[in-house]
Amino acid sequence: MPDNITVAGVAVDTRHWIGGRRVACADTFTDHSPIDGSVLGEIARGGPAEAEAAVAAARDAFPAWAATSRTERARLLHAIADGVEKRIEELAIVETTDNGALLRSHRRGVMPRVAHNFRFFADWLLRLDHEDFETRGHTNHVSWDPAGPCVLITPWNAPLMLATWKVAPALAAGNTVVLKPAEWSPLTASLLADIAAEAGLPAGVLNVVQGYGSEIGDALTSHSDVRRISFTGSVPTARRIAASAAGNLTPLSLELGGKSPLLVFADADLDLAVDLAVEQYDNAGQVCLAGTRLLVEEPVAEEFTRRFVEKASALTQGDPRDEATDIGPNIHPRQLEKIDGFVQRAVAAGARAVIGGHRKDGQYYAPTLLTDVAQDSEIVQEEVFGPILTLQTFAGEDEAVRLANDTRFGLAATVATGDRERAERVSARLVAGTVWVNCFFVRDLQAPFGGSRQSGVGREGGTWSFDFYCDLKNTVTAPKGWNQDHG
To answer: What is the tens place of the pLDDT at every residue in 194-208?
Structure first.
């Protein structure tokens, strides 16, 4: 197979990146663009041999990288951020072509955030410390020791941003990394390897291997030399990873699915509430945090629905490279089949499609709002990961909270209300890793991010990331017993 493909004028190497060099393999898989189904190229399809080589490279590079000063590690992360910023346009068009998300979002928000991920964790590293404290005259000193090689497995809905949420803190902490991107959107991970190498990151510190699911994943997650595993994706895959990691008791960080509620109280600013609700169609509904269950207080439900339908019907769906497009395609024909299956089963069970409810040409699904849905129905309980929202009504706070918490997930929740005290009461009762009040998707890397229940294990962000990627050590020193004072 050719070593490079050209995507929208950008050369992308299709081989693995292992130990500071490109590595080909005999097997490949075909990468398609969701925009029009066109073939982008053949991608190296790794298996156990590539997994072993990548972990070995990370293991061999670890001692020197762990011994590298914090200042130097931070400098190199800033250099990677510089490289990302120089290539924002290239990264944006490649990722849009590969996963179908809006080009305007990649240019203005996503790729600048990729650079910010590296800068944030570089800066956080330099101020990461616990103050020493005393116990009966003995001094306690807490240090953050790098854990070792880390396997990072990332999803297809925001490939580079979600990868760098993991890569940046893992590298900052002094660990080496094996990154396995999603097979449906692998291209920008390859570009990241180039950028890191150009920035001067030592060979073996960052490795990128491509492949299909368990073909390479099991070999990575069961490897005895791997010290941390971080995964973002589905609950079933997380169960498989956990089982694979169990033999070595490898610590896991899991950011999984969601079925998040968006609660609209009668005292809310309805225009704001409608805007928040329509925003849940972002990225064609392929957002784990999306508030896909609209819960609306009965007195305003009819007016809310009318305004929602009017605003949602005005969205422009089409080519994500067009500046005027609001909603692009779904990632893969298999995902489109899954989405349509959910909708058709819901309609057959009595749900009503107020808008949408059908496929469009290609890999596009019409933004859909379903009403007349039962709380225990599949469409309310299971993550669809497409532009599908449901609407239910409630009579008061107690019912709102009961409905909001009545799933196996607990990733996020959004509350629209004009009453500050109500916002505090309701937020305190919601089972969620993040609660947004009169806003959505405001994400500060200082804050903990993750889910409750089956939405995940652990938290990412700020010190929480370093807690995971480091082995914390407490050194207790007695006040006496020294042979001499070295000053």
So the answer is: 999 999 999 999 999
Helix orientation angle between 111-126 and 159-172, rounded to the nearest 10 degrees: 10
Of 214, 225, 155, which Cα lies nearest the Cα of 185? 155
Residue 85 among the catalytic residues: no
Amino acid at 325: T
- Whole-angstrom distance, CA of residue 301 vs CA of residue 342: 24
Chain Cα centroid distance, residue 440: 16
Residue 487 clears pLDDT 50, i.e. is over it: no
Q: Which of 50, 95, 183, 255 is an active site residue?
A: 255
Q: What are the tens digits of pLDDT across the range 379-433?
A: 999 999 999 999 999 999 999 999 999 999 999 999 999 999 999 999 999 999 9
Residue 255 is among the residues annotated as catalytic for this protein: yes
* pTM, entire model: 0.95
Number of other CB atoms surrounding residue 306 within 10 Å: 12
- Which residues have CB under 8 Å from 175's CB, separation 6+? 62, 65, 66, 146, 147, 148, 149, 150, 227, 228, 469
Strands of 233-367, DSSP E? 252-255, 261-264, 293-297, 352-355
* SS3 of residue 150 by DSSP: strand
**Is 110 exposed, middle or buried (CB count within 10 Å of its CB: 0-12, 13-18, 19+)?**
buried
Annotated catalytic residue: which of 288, 297, 460, 470?
288
